[in-house]
Here is the input.
Amino acid sequence: MPSILIMKNIIAGYGDVAIVRNVSIAVDKGEIVAIVGPNGSGKSTLLKCLLGFARLFQGQVFYQGRDVTGMASYRLINQGIGYVPQINNVFPNLTIPENLDMGAYHRKGRNSIKTGIKDIYEMFPELEERKNSLAGNLSGGERQMLAIARAMMPQPQVLLLDEPLASLSPKPSSVILSKLTKIKEAGMAIIIVEQNVKKALSISKRGYVLVEGTCAMEGDSELLFSQEGSKQQYLGL
Here is the structure.
């Protein structure tokens, strides 16, 4: 069975400057893939170019076997690709259910939206406990859970996460990782861009190491983490 999402020979960046050069990645259904590497290596740019938030100079993107290269972000979301940016990923002046409603605009009918919110609360009971709170009053971990939950409201097949553990302390980071593992076990494909190499590789099946915009290493996550030379040279460990 072909991978659900394939990015092939990607060259991408901003303006006329290429940040990512000739990178190819793929993720299967029910799999977590980690993209790790030093700061400035192009990890976030790789995700952003898929959705049109960075410039795609060259390469192809295939989703469920179809070429979706250059497709508008709202159409990709409607087709089943969810995205959680690193910052500005919730509406701080809206409550938790209002944020979830904002993520459900592709779902048809109030009953479908109510069912979606019920499913989200089963996955994230912490959000249900604080459902009357404004998103701006949540802790960092709760806010990140809400961002992920909102991206799940359109029922995506693939979830793209940009630095979901940024600025989080160890305890909420572990909670987020456990939630991602449960989401994966439910059959969703996840691509996670993360600075915390150890934690990202701990929950992923495979990993790609980007260095200066190119893929320096790829393969089984356990194997990547076990190579002492790569830990120091590429992963900053």
